[in-house]
Amino acid sequence: MHMLYNSDSFIVVQFDVPLIEAQVGPQLNRGGFEIVDKFARKEIFIEGALAESFQQGVQALIDEGQPSEDDLDAFIERYAVMGQQPVVMH
Questions:
Q1: What are 58-86's pLDDT values in tens digits?
Q2: How far is 79 from 35, CA to CA, in rounded Å?
Q3: pLDDT at 21 > cutoff 80
Q4: Alpha helices of the chain — where are they, by DSSP H?
Q5: Nearest-10 Cα torsion for 85, 87, 88, 90
Q6: Which of 20, 24, 39, 47 is most buried as measured by Cβ atoms within 10 A of its Cβ?
Q7: Which among 30, 49, 50, 36 is positioned nearest to 83, based on CA atoms?
Q8: Is residue 25 within 8 Å of 13, Cβ to Cβ?
Q9: Does 12 have pLDDT greater than 80?
Q10: Alpha carbon of 55 to those of 13, 51, 61, 90: distances in Å?
């Protein structure tokens, strides 16, 4: 688990799960990103193709130069709006 981003609006955490060798077929890679919307108090976990799309989008922002916090928040918000799981503090 790696915290990748923390702003006033969002937290993004990457989860890496070690490769598991399947008995038949290729190795399976599991993991993804948890996005927490601090204001809406909701979270979403994305994996697979959606997580890959998220990662590529963030990389494209970085490749364009130094993205501002507003630029990153605007991008992350497109994924965060899908969050339905309420954040519960213990």
A1: 999 999 999 999 999 999 999 999 988 88
A2: 8
A3: no
A4: 48-63, 69-80
A5: 130
A6: 47
A7: 36
A8: no
A9: yes
A10: 12, 6, 10, 30
